[in-house]
Design goal:
heterodimer; A: 129 residues; SH3 type barrels; 5 strands; elongated; B: 394 residues; alpha/beta; Rossmann fold; six-stranded mixed beta sheet
Amino acid sequence: MCLGIPGKVVDVRDEDGLRMGRVDFGGVRKEACLSYVPEVVPGDYVIVHVGFAISHVDEEEALRTLELLSQMGDLVQQELATMGPGMTAPAVVDDPMPLGAAVAGRVDEAVPRHQAAPGASALRPGARA
Amino acid sequence: MKYLDEYRDGAIARKLVAEIHRVATRPWTMMEVCGGQTHTIVKQGIDEMLPDGIRMIHGPGCPVCVTPLEQVDKALAIAADPRVIFTSYGDMLRVPGSTTDLLSLKARGADVRIVYSPLDALRIAAAHPDREVVFFAIGFETTAPANAMAAWQARELGLDNFSMLVSHVLVPPAMEAILSSPSNQVQSFLAAGHVCAVMGWTEYEPIAAKYHVPIVVTGFEPLDLLEGILMAVRQLEEGRAVVENQYARAVRREGNRLAQETVFRVFEIGDRTWRGIGEIPSSGYRLKPEFARFDAEQRFLVADISTREHPACIAGEILRGTKTPLDCTAYGVLCSPQRPLGAPMVSSEGTCAAFHAAGRGLGPAVRPLTVIGVPPGTSADAGLQRAASEAIAR
């Protein structure tokens, strides 16, 4: 019950003094109370929880977060390229890798587990195969 | 769906996981507060992708799970009254009370109805002036603006046949209760993004300072959670303890002022009992005296009933994060989502239900052999794609 789902405001109307509207969630339209987000207009995105819009989604912030997240991956790769011994498995694997190869590529036991972990994290995507 | 799919990108998730592995040099224990976050973490196996030393404790943030047994028993007593149409969010219907649950009561003829929004309960009250319509107003701060608006509108519209059974709880006092416990292990919190969408995060700043714990306001999608964990790990590694906001697209520091205004017109802060935890001072909302006529507890004179949990259920320890469902002898044997003993198995946001849905600890038939912590066939991608397709189906 506690989930909040982002949806796009379709229309707005007044009902018994409340600001109501229809919100589109990927094709499914539901009624929501928009009284707590008086600034939204049709086309805006809101987060709806138990039939009430509780937040107006900030498009700029949403884009910025995604950009940061994508860029950060590149930073990781740059960083890894400069890392020293102990790294016998790449931390980021873009192609599916057979599980056996991933296991074989595991770092040597002398390395503490938390440092060995970048290799281990690559196992997950590798395990797809 | 926009604002969902892009936060489930498997390639970015792998990079975030790698970055967490790179940054973490020491073991850290953190707690995600909200049950919705627990669900994503367990379902996607996010906790299993983390470095060995990074431990996620699943917090008490499932409103269904922490609603005390006596409130459930009061709901059952009220719903059994033939004058009453009892309305509730769907999750509460299967929560076991002392003797039965709302769904069983409905099967025996009680008029129990599921509503999506508290405004639906108001519509039912307007359509049935000859009946008493009671709404089970449970939830955290996220739900409070909706439930408060229901009471406000009932007064505006003069709906005298409407009342609410209130069981509202608040996050910051629960966090303080956890942090001040002598057995506390939590070093950092992922705060619940939607609670903060309503309340903002100013309440968390003194907590971060007093207990020296990083608090990261975090969203609910896999990438949100991974970034929230990364931000918390960075703070822990650097010895910082401040409130940071990962969920900037939905949360502002001051929260939603209009929603807060309505909440505090209708509710005031009072002591609350949390199922499995006990009473926490000033940890919930109750109706203000001027809204007392909408208080179902006064209207129906439901006496306190002494309550007893199922002896095998360790819901309290699970809610406090001191045990996991895998420590429970009843889990998957006596207790399942089909036949729940306690609330964490009932609610989809409960820790036990999340573990069960992910097949954790349910034997090799359900859960394949683990190779260095990596269960074959449950890769991040598969999980992420599953979540995306399910969300679209929803």
